[in-house]
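I am writing to request your help with a piece of structural work I have in hand. Thank you for your consideration; the sequence and its tokens are set out here:
=====
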Amino acid sequence: MTPQRFESLKSAIETAQGQGQESIHPEGWPAPLSLMEAERLGAVFEPVFHDPANFMRDATPVEVASETAIEAVEEAVSHSEEQPPARLLSTLLIQQNIVLPEYVEKRQRQLRDFDRDHPPAPRLPIAFRSDQFQLLDHQKVGVAWLQFLWGLTESSGVRGALLADDMGLGKTLQVLCFIAGYLEQTEKPEPVLVVAPVSLLENWQIEIARFFNEGLQGKVRRVYGDPIGTSAPH
């Protein structure tokens, strides 16, 4: 984030607020933003560019505290015979990549390889009862899209996908086809965890029993409530 981009962002936010717009595309930015996202970014960077001296002054206690913590750990380690070493806790690292040109451009190049107008045929699992059921066109595209993104996981760091179909259009079936295909087509597949409201677990089981044979049914374990953490899943 440069001062010029920040000023462009502020100007676009003020214009959008005055005209009642829900999204903005600041000059010099690679992609549009919703007004809510833009306001959040503005709030984050405002103290950095508006009053950098106070921003750095406010950050100083954090730096001092960090140095003090490091010194305390080093001292504990040096006196390990007298007392146990300090325990270092793992902390989630959060990195921002929103609207960064290199991130957006890289993703755009990768996603162009998936032709939405002429998508590839999905690799349906053997466990799918294809002799009784056929996926609808939009479901075939959804499964192919998930499989395409999964292929970018290791090489490009793709970590997720969003199926945004309305309710009742078969998102559960698409995900189950993807999961069953992964379990069949991967040499050493890892377990797959589906996290869903308890009220929907029965629906998942019904769809598995209806659309898939024993090749998938025998691999499913339903676990919720008290049985979690025991050796006897239900």
Observations:
- DSSP finds nine helices and two strands in the chain.
- The mean pLDDT is 77.
- The two ends are 51 Å apart (CA to CA).
- Strands lie at 23-24, 33-34.
